[in-house]
Amino acid sequence: MCGIVGLFLKDKSLEPQLGDMLTDMLITMTDRGPDSAGIAIYGGDSKGKAKLTVQSDTPDVDFKKLDNDLRKEIDGKVEMTIKDTHAVLEVKASELDAARAALTTLRPRVRLMSRGESLEIYKEVGLPKDVADRFELRQMSGSHGIGHTRMATESAVTTMGAHPFNTGLDQCLVHNGSLSNHNSLRRKLRREGVHIETENDTEVGAAYLTWKMMNGATLGEALDSSLDDLDGFFTFVVGTKDGFGVVRDPIACKPAVMAETDQYVAFGSEYRALVNLPGIDEARVWEPEPATVYFWSHNATPTAQEKAA
Fold first, then answer.
1. Is the peptide bond before 290 cis (omega within 30 degrees of 0)?
2. Same domain, 191 and 265
3. Where is the domain boundary, 86, 117, 148?
4. What is the pLDDT of residues 231-264, one digit of tens each?
5. Report field, pTM of the whole predicted structure over 0.70
6. Count of Cβ atoms closer than 10 Å to residue 7 Cβ
7. Which residues are catalytic?
């Protein structure tokens, strides 16, 4: 049992409140996942820059002069912002791969949380409220985001086992459920050259979608294919640079509810995660259908795009 939340803003005037609204939604789901928590925030136009969000158990050591060391290694500008055990390293978009490779040598103990032009992921072991406070999530702004509270079933309670999982540029996934074929699929994806770091079944789900999109599928098509290729019970919420998508398995035994107004689209494992959102009393509220893909994008008409399997 885990808790999932998501918020896609149509109204740009709400963007400074994104972190505050998502944090409230996340904390409401604490009893569904008290082991660890995480949140992904999409911050908008990068203007030719990209970000690496990294984590360390010894930030005082690993983050000391990290920006200077990385700057020398890639011979480019590096800006670093430290938040507790995480740091965001901003570089030119063209230097992102070089920076990522250099980190493995410069700071081998540092773990990569996310990479992309607008995505930042913060996640740690602990209660959602404590995790949110550590990273000052309420102060963050952005166009959309997703979050997760975890009750571990498939792997140990660790930072790397917490959600969201980032396996492609500006792409991340949170999951409630259990994938029964994740071991065989993990082996297949690794043979295909997809990097998977943990034994968590959710990371396999995220990597599967990345692999499909690497081979030309849209997010909607990748989510649709997951209904045939992934075994088990699952509700996925996926974030991309431009929007987010939702899909439930054909049995749909994991709870989910959505709400849409002229200002936003929201997702929660339970309705109580949505009750403090502005205008929720006038929102269209529904339970996502089984085996149906929902997707909203800032680059398209802001209405649900649904495709039944």
1. no
2. yes
3. 117
4. 999 999 999 999 999 999 999 999 999 999 999 9
5. yes
6. 27
7. 2
